Amino acid sequence: MYDDVRIYGVGGPANAGKGTLLSLLEKAHGGEFVVISVGNRLRKEVKEGTELGLQAKTYMENGKLVPDDIINKVFLKIIDEVIKEGKCHKMILDGYPRSPGQVVEMLKSGVYMERMIEITLPEDVLIKRGSDRVCCVDCGETYTVEDLHKRTKKEGVCDKCGGNVVRRPDDAPEKVKVRLQSYLDDTYPMYDVLRKAGVEVVSIDRSETGDVDRFFEAVDF
Ligand code: AMP
Question: What is the pTM for the complete model shown?
Answer without folding.
Answer: 0.85
